[in-house]
Every structure is written in C-alpha cells, then in structure tokens.
Specification:
four-stranded antiparallel beta sheet, single chain
Length: 312
C-alpha cells in the first residue's frame, strides 16, 4: 500500500510508510541513518486506508506531522535523527493523508498542514520555529487527501473527497497575529474539487481531477481560475475520465495517470483539453500513488507494480 513519495536531497532520502514508519538513508549509498515509528513513539493515529503524508526536507531537516497525542509537527535532523523542534498538538488534531506544504505569508515563512480537525500555519523561521501562527477550524473534513494549494495574495485552496468539496481561504496578518477567513465554500458538484490528488497551478490557472461526487463531470480533468473556482474554462469531457489517478506538471505539460494505468500527456493551458500523447503503462488497478519526476524520469505505480519511464 505505497501511498507516498520520498523526500530527496543531495544527501538524504526520507520516506514515510503506510503504517507511519519514517526512515532516513544516505541518498548515494542507501546507508541507514535513523527511523521513527510515529504510532509507537508519538501516539499518531494512522488514517483509514493507510498513511499518505509525503515527508518534506528543508535545509537537511525532515519536516513531519505525526499529529499525535502531544506533538502535531516536528523537525528532525537528517544526519543525526535528533528532534530539533516540536509543535504542540494544542487543538487535538489527527493525521490526515495530506502533506505539509511550505508557504510564505506577508514575508513570514511557515509550514501549512491540513489535519483532521482543522488546518494550521506553523512558523518556519528560526526565531519562532514550531510555533502555531494560525488555526483554521473551518477546514474540517472527515477524509483529507489533497494538500493545501498556496495561491498568490495570501490565499489557500483546499479540497477533499467524500462530499468535502473545496474551500478558498484568505490568510491576513493583523499586527503580530494572523487571521484566516473563508472566501468561498464549494460543494463537490459546484466547482473544482479533488478526491485524492492535489490540484496544480500553472500560468495563473488551476488544474485538477474532479471527484466521484462531482455529478456528470466526475473524474474529468478540469481547468479553472483561482479567483473563480466554480467556473470551468474547460473539462476533459465524458470520453476522457481518469478515475482518481494522480497528475503532475512538468515542462509546461500535464501528465495524468488514470487509475487503470493509462498515462496521458496534455498541454497545460486554459484554451481547452489538448492531448499530446497517451499510452497504457500498467495493467493493474488503483494507480493512485502520487507521481514522482526526477531529471526526466517519471516513477509511477499501481497496487502491484512500480515503473520508471524516461520522458526525455
């Protein structure tokens, strides 16, 4: 049940497994550095269908969100395994499938995490690192897989499946405090939403695969403007449904893997659905794991097989 993509730097590879086991190894030799059991050591509760959180490496520090009994988020030195800072779980949040996203609001760097029970902004700057800067209880869904998409002007687009729909939030600084307001709240059949994968932003537009509960547009790829997420520039049409499969942006193109293993390459533009190529690569099903692209090599998988494709 591989759900995540490792975090990779020149020195380290950090993985987070389906049962909450974190491992750090040497990026060149594969030598083991350290491991953490988030359930046993931090009291994390693994969400239904296993952990889907992709770890993050910033300045040789692994950023993780156990969302356990006491610790919500933490930074771990990749070289030694020492915990450098911790964020207390003061709001009693639980682990989601979502991943921690780096962001900057009003010049303040932070980590944004959509947990079960609400979304938080955690300070990333050295002087206040680990402190909760804001809490948004309005984004509270029973299942959250997509990660927050940080937009210009201090906005965040969040979405979820199973009736979760989507929401557009505005983060504003007021003196020394941050406040989060709801700009718009959309039902899953009203605008852009995604069940499993995080929408992507390119050239001022957002792209994503609509969830199962999006009505006639379910499982279609869609394009919207972030100022108006309920107004579609285009959708891929009834003949081009992708299930709940993953997608990513590279070289001005979208690569979309349907959940039955067909990879489609598209123009990433607002003028319409323009297919550039299509090929079946996997014969299994549930090709839901996020895609990873490194130096032109695309790693993709279904529930039985892992594959690397040279896209160069």
């Amino acid at each position: 049940m591989s759900r995540t993509v490792p975090a990779v730097s020149e020195k380290f590879v950090v993985t987070l497994g389906p049962a909450g086991h974190v491992m750090c190894v040497d990026a060149v030799t594969g030598d083991f550095y350290w491991g953490i059991d988030l359930v046993r050591e931090y009291g994390a509760t693994i969400p239904m269908w296993h952990a889907g959180q992709c770890p993050l490496i910033v300045d040789d520090v692994a950023i993780l969100a156990p969302a356990g009994t006491e610790v919500l988020m933490m930074g771990v030195d990749c070289a030694t395994g020492a915990v450098l800072w911790q964020t207390p779980n003061t709001h009693g949040l639980a682990m989601s499938h979502s991943s921690i996203m780096p962001a900057e609001f009003d010049g303040i760097p932070m980590f944004v995490y959509a947990a079960l029970g609400g979304m938080v902004g955690v300070a990333a700057a050295e002087e206040h690192r680990g402190a909760i800067l804001w809490f948004a209880p309005q984004w509270d869904r029973s299942v959250i897989a997509p990660s927050p998409l940080v937009l210009p002007d201090g906005r965040i687009f969040v979405t979820a499946g199973y009736g979760g729909g989507s929401m557009l939030l505005q983060v504003r600084r007021s003196g020394e405090e941050f406040r989060v307001a709801t700009v718009a709240d959309f039902k899953p059949n009203q605008g852009l939403a995604s069940e499993q994968q995080t929408p992507v932003m390119h050239d001022g537009h957002m792209f994503g695969i609509l969830p199962n509960d999006a009505g006639p547009l379910r499982n279609q790829l869609a394009c919207v403007h972030p100022d108006d997420p309920d107004n579609f520039f285009w959708t891929s049409g009834r003949e081009n449904r992708f299930g709940l499969g993953p997608y990513l942006l590279a070289d001005g193109k979208l690569y979309v893997l349907s959940d039955d293993g067909v990879l489609t390459m598209l123009e990433a533009g607002a003028m319409g659905y323009r297919e550039l190529g299509r090929r079946r690569l996997l014969e299994g099903h549930d090709a839901w794991g996020p895609l990873a692209l490194v130096q032109g090599h695309l790693v993709l998988r279904d529930d039985t097989r892992l594959m690397c494709v040279d896209l160069r």
